Fold:
Amino acid sequence: MNHMLTDTAHLYWNAEWQKADGTSPWAMPEPWVVDHASTFPPGARILDLGAGIGRHALAFAEAGHHVTALDASEAAMAAVGAAAFTKGLTIDTVQAPMTDLPFETASFDHVLAWNVIYHGDESVVRRTLSEVARVLRPGGTFMATMLSARRLPVEKAKARGREISRNTWVFESEGDKVHPHYFCTGADLVSLLWGFEVFTLFDRPHVKPGSWHWHLLAERLA
Structure:
């Protein structure tokens, strides 16, 4: 299936971002993300890929880094721009698909993709990872989460679903899983990471019990 037909979850999230504010759980940075960013030298070039309302982009900018926030959602980028203005921070906001990043090769020292890349089928995942590898400088780091195949039984228990292509499922639910989502094993994920050296890869419940996600930290190979 063509990735242009499966990379559609931003349509759901655009509506959600219009309702989110500073009290939303999506406004709270993840500790692992912040801890890793504390190791960067001042002024690191960071891409927050799928930035949402900017919880990580804002934290990076407050730490003195050069930050670009990208999301396919217009509402998300409006929220990030408004929050940055209120806080007196400089963040470049770019509305664009993750499968076609509008940046030069080796533009960034670090790319973050938290709860993002699995929104689509395997062609979306492969294309996005290829783009991340392209815009990340050799030796730069990549941090991401991916949906674990261990989560599939939980989703199947909540709503009727069907596999539309390899590892890609849609569910009859009220949330974003009416849009295609990619669920993978650790072996699947490592096989997709061409051009990266994996430093850390662990699978754990992300927020609620049963919400299994892979948590990844990797380095772009030369």
